[in-house]
TrEMBL record:
Database matches in InterPro entries: 2-isopropylmalate_synth_dimer (IPR013709), AIPM/Hcit_synth_CS (IPR002034), Aldolase_TIM (IPR013785), Citramal_synthase (IPR005675), LeuA/HCS_post-cat (IPR054691), LeuA_allosteric_dom_sf (IPR036230), PYR_CT (IPR000891)
Ranges of residues in domain Pyruvate carboxyltransferase: 7-269
Record keyword Ribonucleoprotein present: no
EC number: 2.3.3.21
Source organism: Dongia rigui
SMART domains to which the protein is assigned, alphabetical: LeuA_dimer
Name of the gene: cimA
Protein name according to UniProt: Citramalate synthase
Family from the record: Belongs to the alpha-IPM synthase/homocitrate synthase family.
Keyword Transferase: yes
């Protein structure tokens, strides 16, 4: 493949991603994410802004040892009225001693006039002098032309003058930024095409925000028009609506175009894992509908779809899921037919004859239970247990004799109003009856604690299991406080496995126990099979 097809991937998750509402990376988070990005084969990993905060200072003080990616520090051009050599911010950037630096500067005349309040000529000098000075101190210099597309639409000659100043001063990459995310793909392609007449495409980059849901499309349009570096973040993290999502861009480039990136086929297979690693570090659930890597990206629910996919996956799948480390997922619901059930059996390793009468009975059972309020398309572990029980293949790890949950709301000795929950469970394990008591910050937490206290001595595999999400839905709101509730529990373990279970009952604690019981049983079933 020709060199002019090589696209360089630049990740800004550790800086741009940190601007996401609710995201606060620790130093250890940054190290783990940077190492994951390096393993998969990205060209550049931006670590943050030296001097901006204690976390970034600590991170740059003991930087990750990257093997494939260049480690990048971010900062800004010199300030007005100072020389480049005498600007503390610029020197903090260069003192980080990274393999490359990326500095941001203004390219929209409106910002120069209003925000900086300086002459437009001085702004161009700031860009040129900063890049030239950085070239003397750093191995590779990049310039982020902030608000470039807004600036170009308002004053093309000035925006180009700013970008050209960085290029002529020695910037390896001049990155055109759609900073407010308001530009559309056809505009991006036209403007980039015009810029390449002045600056070679193999020195141009693109950085798009996602405010019109076009960041990935805009990035692809820019590459098509000639840029050869693309910036983005994992899972599209970023301020407001986020940045271009590298998790979507990478497979689109590798599998849908003739452009070349620094990843190989084995690297691409780590993509789903890397996406979920980020969510795990942020302690949030992965987006099920995420392109390429989401749990639902290759999920099939309708019976006709499943039948078609079974014959030829290309009917409803645009790529083979394993190419990005994902998997096909056959959903079981009240829309399911025999094809769904049989496909799901194969997925969980059950060898069942298609003519077995138990299959038809299970289809009817699923439809009846979903009519009662169960939802197996979001509770795959509960369905697996239902199916295995129908086939008589789930061991009895424990039997519940009874449980009791109490809540107490009172004033403590310091005069604070507190609520405490206490659960008592009586279980039978291997013929021995055990009673345990545990307290918690809520009835489900207390019940979970009591169950674990009884089960852990016999089943140490439960040690790394934890509840990561708990959802309640009222199914019959017209019944008021007597309504039937559905509880969905998501659990995870130390091996990166996640599974979902469901319980339904007019009593929310009973529904919670049902889902919790399935979650524990599924974990024990998997542990016994390994």
């Amino acid at each position: 493949m020709a060199d002019d097809k090589r696209v360089y991937l630049f990740d800004s998750t550790l800086r741009d991603g940190a601007q996401t509402q609710g995201v606060d990376f620790s130093v250890n988070d940054k190290l783990a994410i940077a190492e994951g990005l390096d393993r998969i084969g990205l060209d550049y990993v931006e670590g943050g802004w030296p001097g901006a905060n204690p976390t970034d200072d600590a991170f740059f003080g003991a930087p990750p040892s990257l093997k494939r990616a260049k480690f990048v520090a971010f900062g800004m051009t010199r300030r007005p009225g100072r020389s480049a050599a005498n600007d503390p911010g610029l020197n903090a950037l260069l003192n980080a001693k990274t393999q490359a630096v990326c500095m941001v500067g203004k390219s929209w005349d409106f910002h120069v006039d209003v925000a900086l309040g300086i002459s437009r000529a001085e702004n161009v000098d700031m860009i040129s002098e900063s890049v030239e000075y950085a070239k003397q101190r750093s191995g590779e210099v990049m310039f982020d032309a902030e608000h470039f597309f807004d600036g170009y639409k308002a004053n093309p000659s000035y925006a180009l003058e700013c970008a050209s100043a960085a290029y002529k001063a020695g910037a390896r990459w001049v990155v055109l930024c759609d900073t407010n995310g308001g530009t559309l793909p056809h505009e991006i392609e036209r403007i980039v095409g015009e810029v390449t007449a002045k600056i070679p495409g193999n020195h141009l980059g693109i950085h798009c925000h996602n405010d019109t849901e076009n960041a990935v499309a805009n990035s692809l349009a820019a590459i098509r028009a000639g840029v050869r570096q693309v910036q983005g973040t994992l899972n599209g993290l970023g301020e407001r609506c986020g940045n271009a999502n590298l998790v979507s861009l990478i497979p689109s480039l590798m599998l849908k175009t003739d452009f070349k990136v620094g990843l190989n086929e084995q690297d691409l297979k780590q993509l789903t894992h890397l996406s979920r690693l980020l969510d795990e570090r942020l302690n949030r659930a992965p987006t099920r509908s995420a392109a390429y890597v989401g749990e639902s990206a290759f999920a099939h629910k309708g019976g006709l779809h499943v039948s078609a996919v079974e014959k030829d996956p290309r009917t409803y799948e645009h790529i083979e899921p394993s190419l990005v480390g994902n998997r096909r997922h056959i959903v079981v619901s009240d829309q399911s037919g025999r094809a769904n059930i049989l496909a799901r059996f194969r997925e969980i390793g059950l060898d069942v004859d298609a003519d077995d009468g138990k299959v038809g009975a299970l289809v009817e059972t699923v439809k009846l239970r979903e009519y009662e309020g169960y939802a197996y398309d979001g509770a795959e572990a509960s369905f697996e247990l239902l199916a295995r029980r129908a086939l008589g293949s789930v061991p009895t790890f424990f039997k519940l004799a009874r449980f009791r949950v109490m809540d107490e709301r009172r004033w403590n000795v310091r005069g604070d109003l507190i609520t405490e929950s206490e659960a008592t469970v009586t279980l039978e394990i291997d013929g021995e009856q055990l009673m345990t008591v545990a307290s918690g910050n809520g009835p489900v937490n207390a019940l979970d604690g009591a169950l674990r206290k009884a089960l852990m001595p016999a089943y140490p595999a439960l040690a790394d299991m934890r509840l990561v999400d708990f959802k309640v839905r009222i199914l019959t709101p017209q019944a008021g406080t007597e309504a039937i509730t559905r509880v969905m529990i998501e659990s995870a373990d130390g091996h990166g496995e996640r599974w979902n279970t469901v319980g339904v009952s007019p009593n929310i604690i009973d529904a919670s126990f049902e889902a919790l019981n399935d979650a524990i049983t599924w974990k024990l079933l998997k542990a016994s099979a390994s």
